[in-house]
Every structure is written in structure tokens, then in C-alpha cells.
Specification:
ANL_N_sf; alpha/beta; AMP-dep_synth/lig_dom; 4 helices; globular; AMP-binding_CS; two-stranded antiparallel sheet; phosphoprotein
């Protein structure tokens, strides 16, 4: 599959990743992050980091919650304050910084 990265130029360019690489990465993620009863996807489905928060839990039979793409940070903050436990939340450093100020 192809991911797009800005690299050092700031211009998006496609980078080809193999299915074998994705499979190995998901096997590692499952072994490392397990167990997770549920996970939340707070990033775009086109974002490469979403591979972990979407596919790894599904491969383990866990529930995945997709947050709305509009006002994602507010929806994520509300979900993190919900008492229902989450096993996996994958965030960018920028999201973590903003949420840390709000929580």
C-alpha cells in the first residue's frame, strides 16, 4: 500500500509499503499492546498511524470506536473522560499536548 509523507521538501510524495511489512508490524503491535478490550480511532483513515488503532484491535476481536472527523479533539477528550475503559488510544504528540492541557 502507499502512504504519503512530506519528507524534507514539504511536498507530499508516495512511499510504497509492502503487505508483508504491514503484516509483521501488526503482529508486533498485537503482541506489544495486547490486551485491549476496545480502541478508539481519532485520526483520519488515510493516516498511516491509524493502521495500529484500527486493524490491530479488529484482528484480536476487539471493539473499535471511530470518532467523527470534525472536531476530533473534542470528541476524543469526551471519550477519554467516559468511564468505559479503553485498551488502546494512539495519539500524535500534538494531540497529546493539547489534550494534556484540557484534561
Amino acid at each position: 500500500y502507499v502512504i504519503y509523507t512530506s519528507g524534507s521538501t514539504g511536498q507530499p510524495k508516495g512511499t510504497l509499503l509492502t503487505h508483508a511489512g504491514a503484516t509483521h508490524y501488526l503482529q508486533w503491535a498485537i503482541a506489544t499492546y495486547r490486551p485491549f478490550p476496545s480502541a478508539v480511532v481519532s485520526s483520519s483513515l488515510a493516516f498511516d498511524a491509524t493502521l495500529t488503532s484500527l486493524l490491530a484491535p479488529l484482528l484480536c476481536g476487539a471493539k473499535v470506536e471511530l470518532l467523527p472527523e470534525h472536531d476530533t479533539l473534542d470528541a476524543l477528550r469526551q471519550r477519554l473522560c467516559d468511564p468505559t475503559p479503553l485498551g488502546l488510544v494512539k495519539l500524535t504528540p500534538a494531540h497529546l499536548e493539547v489534550l494534556g492541557q484540557q484534561l
